[in-house]
Design a protein that fits this description.
With about 80 residues, the chain is an all-alpha fold. It has one domain. The chain contains three helices and no strands. The relative contact order is 0.23. Keywords: Membrane, Transmembrane, Transmembrane helix.
């Protein structure tokens, strides 16, 4: 596997992890809203303030940095 494919895989993994974490946060907020008061946009916004933002974004950010590094390295060494 070359550097460009490795960089693309790391970027994809990082983005999928970030999207997954945010999706789960919205699902939890909407489930809490439905359980408490029924569905409405203002209630979901209020529940989003109650659900903590994911602070464990360290691993996806590391994956993104590694992926960008591999892509830059592959482009700089391409001759």
């Amino acid at each position: 596997m070359n550097k460009r494919a490795t960089g693309t895989i790391f970027l994809s993994l990082g983005l999928l992890l970030i999207i997954g974490q945010q999706s789960l946060r919205f699902l939890v907020a909407s489930a809490m809203t439905f359980h408490i008061s029924g569905m409405s946009n203002t209630a979901i916004q209020e529940m989003l303030t109650w659900t903590p933002t994911p602070y464990n974004l360290v691993i996806p950010i590391i994956f993104l940095i590694i992926g960008i590094g591999y892509l830059l390295w592959s482009e700089l060494n391409k001759e």
